[in-house]
Amino acid sequence: MAGALARLSGAAVLMVDYRLAPEHRFPAGLDDCITAFDWASRHGPDAHRQGEHEAQVHLSLVGDSAGGNLAAATCLELVARGARTPDRLVLIAGTLDNQSPPDRTAIDDQIVTAESLAAATAAYLGPGEVPSDYRVSPVRGPHALLTGFPPTLLQVSAIETLAYDSRNFAARLAEAGVRVNLSIWPELAHVWHAFLGLFPEATEALREIAAFVNGGIDR
Fold first, then answer.
1. For residue 167, how many other CB atoms are within 10 A of its CB?
2. For 156, phi and psi rounded to 5 degrees?
3. What is the pTM of this model?
4. How far apart are CA 38 and CA 136, in angstroms?
5. Integer Cα distance of 95 and 77 in angstroms
6. Quick check: bond before 27 cis, omega within 30?
7. In this model, does residue 157 exceed pLDDT 90?
8. What letters, b where the CB count within 10 A reaches 16 and e where it falls short, cover 50-82?
């Protein structure tokens, strides 16, 4: 996926090897993502061109599934700290509401179930941490922080469990005045982007992401 996105967008892609639960519980992975974003903003392949009087290098943040959770939470934390935020944010079927609301159900999802999501959240949280923390459930982010978000693209399958999360987070961003694109694809598996060479929709979705992250760039 990352290689295909790099080719389609013409951009360098940095994949973050963040620490994983349950060996490293929240907020270890989130801390790693924030550190990686800060590093990329200062040491990316075009950083040498970023002089004192030059425009900053365009930088997008993309995450899928649990990575979508971390991407959204990273953006919330960057806004809270008054740090640089990404120019574009892309969330692919992100786990954005880990309080496991009862109406978070799927039309047909054999991969992500309510039971698997609850188990993953329990493994992710450390002692004393709760799923209502907006860094765990970004859909609960304060309005004041959401207003600082960049243009955001959310992609999700209409039949999967996490369509609930994407729809609700898109609504929260829209209420905060953020430019948001909610792209719902029919009859596809969770993160169908990984099925390159099997589903034409995998390449089509990555092309949509490439076009979105390149928006506004003068190449």
1. 17
2. -160, 155
3. 0.94
4. 20
5. 17
6. yes
7. yes
8. eeeeeeebbbbbbbbbbbbbbbbbbbbbbbeee
pLDDT for 101-124, tens place per residue?
A: 888 888 888 889 888 999 999 999
The CA distance from 157 to 33, in Å, is 25
CA distance 144 to 22: 31
For residue 218, pLDDT over 70 is answered with no
How is 140-155 classified by DSSP, letter by letter?
G--HHHHTT---EEEE
Contact 125, 75 (CB under 8 A): no
